[in-house]
Every structure is written in structure tokens, then in C-alpha cells.
């Protein structure tokens, strides 16, 4: 499969935080979820690959070309959405858009208007008066209206209600249907990723822990539940576990072995959240 | 075509989907040259990763059930169906052999076995 964006050897440090020569690939036709705890380096990674903060080292290639050779072209081909919007609060939507739209070579006014209608945004609305969800929708409308090939978003769904998150996922999937596109977004809402992501990249303490096909990752891990008496035998097969007076619950990547040796335990599918916690513990 | 994915099953998602497409081809719900959905549309509908569907299509192609044409799509190829039907038949024959051996060990006659089969066949 073709890659759309390759990040290699990205480094950035702030005080005692360091992005440690990280490398990863965003594949074409995939929605890639970027996960990690608060302070793990998600936003720093996104900001530095967009050159919004200066990176100390690292090469970023977009469709095989180093983006620093032609940063304008790169920015023209991507759509970005941030958690804290970078708009002027005192402007109306129309005024703000009239500042932004001319910078894109393929601005599509009709698509933009359709998104405004779909999101019930009106051009007279003053940006400062919009709710968090409406601001996100406005940012999304801008990101989707210039034929971007790659959407890069930093926690676009944080603070949104479940209905809006569902709509957001539906929009991403519709966006992907055109083909030769990709989405890269960070989030804490792992249930959103259960429903939308094809690939997952996890970052922890400035280092990439894994970069994997989501379904394959979910296939690899299982939740194990059983009697505490079995714990001494099973513990070596688990990545992490909790126990109470009534039993233990753990996560394993060796479910087959456990099941063969202890047929009485319960084995269930894990969610992304369980796998994340197992990696960090 | 009906595809149901079980989240409680131990069978991997790609395997579940692949088996059900094969079944649809065997039952002739899908016939020669029928187009399969695009990878993204299919993944969206089944709520699985595009990478899972890609794997399903790749493996079905290796096994000769579909042919994918770059930029056009993936189509059912029925050339292998007889082969698969035969192998499925053999599977049933093997199980019947086991059953007959057990029956003989328990002194169950052929007539009794046939009678049991008649009843069970209607029930299942």
C-alpha cells in the first residue's frame, strides 16, 4: 500500500519533554488514529510535522517529496483541524472564511456551502459565540472544502457529544470514499477509533510504541477473567491485570495458551482502550 | 449477500468475512463476474478496517474466487467452484465415516442409523 506521509527521525524537546527521533507512516486510503496519554507527545508531533513549532530534526515527506522543499504545496493539499481553534473570535464566519479561502488553490465554494448547511452554520454567526462543537464543525467545513488529500486533526472530537462524534465519523468515512486520501487524527475517544480507524499509532513518553493495523491488533489481544486462585499460573501470560476479592481481569496476547491450560477462564475481546492501558502499565 | 460478523467468535474478522463471501459464491448468490463492493465502501458497511477487507480480497484472489482489476474493481470468478464443492463434500463424507464407525461399535444397524438420520435431518 502506498504511503501518503512519512515522518522520519522527528525530534523536538521542551524542558524535560522530548520527542525522541520518532518515525511513522500514514498510509493512503486509511484512517489512522493517533493515541497516547496526556503529555505523551501527540500534539507536539502534529504541530512539529506541520511546522507550527520548529522541529530540531526530522524529515517529512508527502507523496515521496520532502515537504520543506515546497511547504506551500503541502499545506495546500492538507486540511487541518485543531482542538483549540485558531480563528479570530470577533469575526463572522463569512469574514473569517474570506481570509482563509484565497490561500487554497482548489477552494470549492459549493462544497463549503454544503458543509455549512449540513452543520447548520450560518455565515453571519460570530465565531466567538459558537459552541465548541460548532467551532469544530466550522474548522471541519474549511478542511473539507479545498480538495485536501490528507486531513490532519488534533483531538477534533474532544468535548463533542456522542451524536456529533457519530456525525464526525460518518463525514470522515464519506471523505475517504473518493479514494487516494488519508486521515490522521489524535483522540482520547478510543470508541471513536473502534468505529473509524484502520491503522493505530500509539505514542508514549515521546516514543512510538506501536504502529499497527487496528483489526490485527484487536485480534492479538484478549481480556482474561478468572478465579484469583489461578493467578499464579496465568500471571506470566498477562501484560497487566487487576484483582478483587471475587476474581481477576487481565489482558493477554497469549489467549490460546491460557485457554488450553485453564479452560475455565473467561476470554473476551479487548477494546483499544484495554490495549492502550496494558501497554502503558 | 448477507454478512454477519460475530464479536464473540474466536475466528478472526477477515476469516469470518472471507468464509461468508465464499459461502455466497457456493450458494450462487454471487455469480461469475458479479462485482464485489469497493474496499472502502465494504469496510464502512461492515465497520471493519479497510486493511481487513484488503486482506480478504487478496486471499480470495489467491484462492481463485475473485479477480481484481486495478482501477476497476473486484469480480467473482467461478472457475474454482466445482473444486470447492468437492472438498466440502469430502468433509461431510469424513464425518459420516466417523459416525458409521461409532454406530458399528455400538451395534447400531444400517436401518436404525438411516432412521436416526431421517429424523435428525428434518430437525436440524
TrEMBL record, chain B:
GO molecular function: DNA binding; DNA-binding transcription factor activity
Alphabetical list of InterPro entries matching this protein: Tscrpt_reg_HTH_GntR (IPR000524), WH-like_DNA-bd_sf (IPR036388), WH_DNA-bd_sf (IPR036390)
HTH gntR-type domain span: 11-79
Origin: domain of life: Bacteria
A Pfam cross-reference name: GntR
Origin species: Schaedlerella arabinosiphila
Name of this chain's protein: GntR family transcriptional regulator
PROSITE patterns: HTH_GNTR (PS50949)
Keyword line: DNA-binding, Transcription, Transcription regulation
